[in-house]
TrEMBL record:
Protein name (Swiss-Prot/TrEMBL): Mannan endo-1,4-beta-mannosidase
Active site per the UniProt annotation: E189, E297
Any one GO molecular function term: mannan endo-1,4-beta-mannosidase activity
Organism of derivation: Flavobacterium panici
Residues annotated for substrate binding in this entry: H124, W194, Y261
The GH26 domain, residue ranges: 32-366
UniProt xrefs under PROSITE patterns: GH26 (PS51764)
Reaction(s) the record says it catalyses: Random hydrolysis of (1->4)-beta-D-mannosidic linkages in mannans, galactomannans and glucomannans
């Protein structure tokens, strides 16, 4: 199948007849398009990496809610290949607000699919017990993971929240009648202590139990078959065993990820060797388990290093034989003059980002072709 265009003359042909590639996707009833996307992401990771940007189409530096616009497209003429959205608005709000959020995100997801791009979903899950947002706040927040697990006092409430997510997944239907595949990344950065589901506030056993229930309930009970499930701690690990300390098992994870800002220049501190080592760990695990791997979050706020894209990120991704299907940088806030992680016209790293874009290794939305279709 030729699902990459523009940057390479190589014909990437893969046969996706069941049994020819024994990739360990956890949903055996996944939609055809979700299975094909999964297989194609694995194939892409052998020689390329997709570029992603969080909230790329919802807003950008100094703008919001403008159709078919992204800061990335303003710079290089293409949207990112992977567009990040968030389910944060799916709980803790009125039904009217939730439905409004669903409508906006549904259009975003469908439009991305119809252009040939990919959607990944993070979940800044508002604490269902203390109702004070997703961050942990001392003396106010409640350690809720033990309460939302099966048998917990808020388990039924958690099931209702998952039904809201399932309803959205079932409603994300494109003009061709197909359900749009999404990479779903719940409980991210769980090894940190800034979210209420973090390691400091949640036992290993409770975390694994809630994760397993979440996947099983969505997939098996609510019949969501257009999700690829991503497991992504922050960067607080230095070995495979540390990375897998809260791993819920091969039947509950499709993609191994990592969020890492700290090794890639945050606060002016760089430890690229450490960051590369961690990327190699998740890549090796994915290869071993026949699953996907991705650099699920990174970036340098305000991008003060004008050659960060080629000298830091690109060199790090290419230094070792690492197989990652995408790398995603964080959002560009619409109002803050400093909170942005991708270039926009006039930003000092713009020229370097063009070099990053033109490198054959990186792929953007306009480089993709038929990523949801198979040809034999």
């Amino acid at each position: 199948m030729n699902f990459i265009t523009n940057k390479t003359n190589a014909l990437l042909s893969i046969c996706m007849i069941t049994g020819h590639f024994l990739f360990a996707q956890i949903d055996k009833k996944a939609t055809k398009e979700t299975k094909i996307l999964y297989h194609n992401l694995k194939a892409i990771s052998k020689e390329h990496i997709l570029f992603g940007h969080q909230h790329a189409l919802e807003y950008g530096h100094g703008w919001s809610n403008e159709p078919n616009k992204s800061d990335i497209k303003l710079v290089i003429g293409s949207h990112p290949a992977v567009v990040g959205i968030d389910f944060s608005g799916f709980s803790g709000y009125s039904k009217e607000e939730i439905e409004k959020t669903k409508t906006v995100l549904r259009k975003n997801v469908i439009d991305t699919y119809e252009r040939g791009g990919i959607t990944t979903v993070s979940w800044h899950f508002n604490n269902p017990v203390s109702k004070n947002g997703f961050y942990w706040k001392d003396s106010v927040s409640v350690a809720a993971m033990s309460l939302i697990k099966k048998g917990g006092s808020r388990h039924e409430q958690y099931k209702e929240i998952l039904k809201t997510i399932a309803d959205f997944a079932h409603s994300a239907k494109a003009k061709d009648g197909k359900l749009v595949p999404m990479i779903f990344r719940p409980f991210h950065e769980f090894d940190g202590d800034w979210f209420w589901w973090g390691k400091k506030y949640t036992s290993r056993e409770d975390f694994i139990e809630v994760w397993q229930f979440t996947v099983s309930y969505l997939r098996d009970t609510l019949k969501v078959h257009n999700f690829i499930y991503a497991f992504s701690p922050d960067n607080r690990f230095n070995s495979e065993s540390e990375y897998l300390e809260r791993y819920p098992g091969d039947d509950y994870v499709d993609l191994f990820g990592m969020d890492d800002y700290g090794d890639f220049g945050r606060d002016g501190k760089y430890d690229l060797d450490a960051g590369i080592k961690k990327l190699k760990i998740i890549s090796d695990i994915a290869i071993q388990k026949k699953k996907l791997a991705a650099f699920t979050e990174t970036g340098l706020e305000s991008i003060p290093n004008e050659k960060w894209w080629t000298e830091t990120l690109l060199k790090s991704l290419q230094k070792e034989k690492i197989e990652l299907c995408y790398v995603l940088v964080w959002r560009n806030d619409a109002k803050s003059p400093t909170h942005y992680y991708a270039p926009f016209p006039g930003q000092i790293s713009e020229k370097d980002f063009l070099k990053f874009y033109n490198d054959p290794y990186t792929l953007f939305e306009n480089d993709l072709k038929n990523i949801y279709k198979r040809k034999f």
